[in-house]
Amino acid sequence: MDERKNVLAHTRSGASNPGRVGFEAALAAVQEAAEEAVCESGIDRGEVVALCAGLSGGGSTQAAEKMHRGLAAAFPNTTIKICTDLEIALAAMNEGPAVVLIAGTGSAAVGRGVKGFMRREGGLGRQLGDEGSATHIGKKAMLAAKVLRERTGEESQLGKQLLRQLGTANWSVLQDRYPFLGSAVRRTESARDEREPDIYPRLFPVVANAAEAGDEIARGLLREAAGDLASLVDRLLGQLDLRQVPFRLAKTGGMMGRCAFFDLELNRRLGEVAPNAEMGLLPMSPAHAAALMALELVASAG
């Protein structure tokens, strides 16, 4: 973005959550996106005066400081701001009371009250929360299919589709490939595997497609997820004192727009907990909002 707020380039790279992919991979992803933007803009890297990185996992002081040092080395003499993905999502909303619900690999809700203060719910990661997320849905879908297979001796249609998505024919082969799966929920903390985060979100499209086709197990999972996400928003409204106040509510993340059944169910549940909300999409992308935040760094410094 230039100083007149014209977008000169919009690029994309890999995952940048240090907690999921590691610091080196996260830094490399942010650098790749930034450098490609510089290249496409036709400017010199030294002309970049400000950079804002809004990262999932960026709320950790240690992670933020490490990312700041890494980007400062790649972009010297550049003013750098590290914040969370929730902050740039909320910055993408217009002024006034607003809530953003994020549902993708993880889940979280962030909002701004009438007086401008910000609060958040969720976003605690797969070990402590992420209820209603693609990770949570995938984990519960695998458990449901596996338990049904053990109880009936027959593979459900959903179970077959989950196994096909993971490239295997049965649960024993899958467990040999991914030992951390153990016996469904009977895993202990010592049975964690670094590949775990990559498995469950991949199953969300399978559950979504099955729900669209009328599979009741899949539909039940998505109903529960919609309820979990609505609960996030409900708790946040209590913190922000927005239960009786009109506000804007935006939904974003990889789960949105993927399944008509889920979208309708989520809208219904959100309507129950937030009847005063005007629901819609983000007015701009979080990346666009991050560029505007970088521009504000220039204005405040000058």
Walk me through the topology.
Elements: H1 18-21, H2 23-41, E1 50-55, H3 61-74, E2 79-84, H4 85-91, E3 98-103, E4 107-112, E5 118-122, H5 134-152, H6 157-165, H7 171-177, H8 196-199, H9 204-212, H10 216-240, E6 247-252, H11 260-273, E7 277-280, H12 286-301
Parallel strand pairs: 1-2, 3-6, 6-7
Antiparallel strand pairs: 3-4, 4-5
Q: Briefly, what is this?
A:
By secondary structure, the protein is α/β, with parallel strands linked by helices. 49% of the residues lie in helices and 13% in strands. The strands form 2 sheets. It has a 5-stranded mixed β-sheet with strand order 5-4-3-6-7, sandwiched between helices. The chain has a two-stranded parallel ribbon with strand order 1-2.
For the structure shown, list the relevant keywords.
two-stranded parallel sheet, 7 strands, 302 residues, Nucleotidyltransferase, domain 5, alpha/beta
Structural features, described:
With 302 residues, the protein is of the alpha/beta class. It has 2 domains: 88 residues; 190 residues, ATPase, nucleotide binding domain (Nucleotidyltransferase, domain 5), CATH 3.30.420. 49% of the residues lie in helices and 13% in strands. The strands form 2 sheets. Strands 5-4-3-6-7 form a 5-stranded mixed beta sheet, sandwiched between helices. It has a two-stranded parallel ribbon with strand order 1-2. α11 links the parallel β6 and β7. α4 crosses α12. The longest helix is centred in the last third of the chain and has 25 residues. It is globular.
What is the global morphology? globular
| Integer count of domains | 2
Q: Write the CATH fold name of the largest domain.
A: Nucleotidyltransferase, domain 5
CATH superfamily of the largest domain: ATPase, nucleotide binding domain
Most strands sheet: 5 strands, mixed
> How much strand content do the residues show?
5-15%
Mean residue pLDDT: 88
The count of β-strands is: 7
Write down the secondary-structure element order.
Answer: HHEHEHEEEHHHHHHEHEH
Helix content: 40-55%
* Sheet with the most strands: spatial strand order: 5-4-3-6-7
CATH class of the largest domain: Alpha Beta
